[in-house]
């Protein structure tokens, strides 16, 4: 009887420790690798803004990884089709070196529209020139 109580106690402890972590990480799945293409009309000095296409996010967390660029500051925005040019919602920004990632959290407040999703995109200011496959991010939702 004593061994059974110990086994049950150990099982409950293991479940209490593992389940919160496994469910948190299971929610993030790789959406894909996206090239940053020129965002027409937005230039600052010698830097040009580049961006990904829209990602329909379930909210919660959104992870951005710098695949193949030097240290770059990334901006995450939520697309607002009714707001007109320049009225997209700023979500967050972070500087990442090549191969590094950052997870943006608490994005449920950006879900909207008929699909109840957040239309997110990543933007970065980089020197002009180059091709999209030379400026890539890996996105997880």
From TrEMBL:
<feature type="signal peptide">
    <location>
        <begin position="1"/>
        <end position="26"/>
    </location>
</feature>
<keyword id="KW-0732">Signal</keyword>
<protein>
    <submittedName>
        <fullName>Uncharacterized protein</fullName>
    </submittedName>
</protein>
């Amino acid at each position: 009887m004593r061994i059974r109580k110990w086994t049950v106690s150990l099982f409950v402890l293991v479940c209490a420790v593992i389940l919160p972590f496994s469910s948190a990480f299971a929610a993030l799945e790789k959406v894909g690798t996206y090239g940053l293409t020129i965002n027409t009309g937005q230039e600052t000095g010698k830097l040009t803004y580049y961006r990904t296409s829209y990602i329909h996010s379930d909210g919660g967390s959104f992870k951005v990884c710098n695949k193949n660029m030097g240290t770059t500051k990334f901006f995450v925005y939520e697309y607002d089709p009714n707001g007109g040019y320049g009225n997209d919602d700023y979500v967050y920004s972070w500087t990442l070196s090549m191969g590094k990632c950052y997870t943006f959290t608490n994005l449920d407040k950006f879900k909207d529209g008929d699909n109840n999703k957040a239309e997110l995109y990543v933007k970065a200011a980089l020197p002009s020139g180059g091709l999209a496959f030379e400026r890539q991010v890996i996105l997880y939702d």
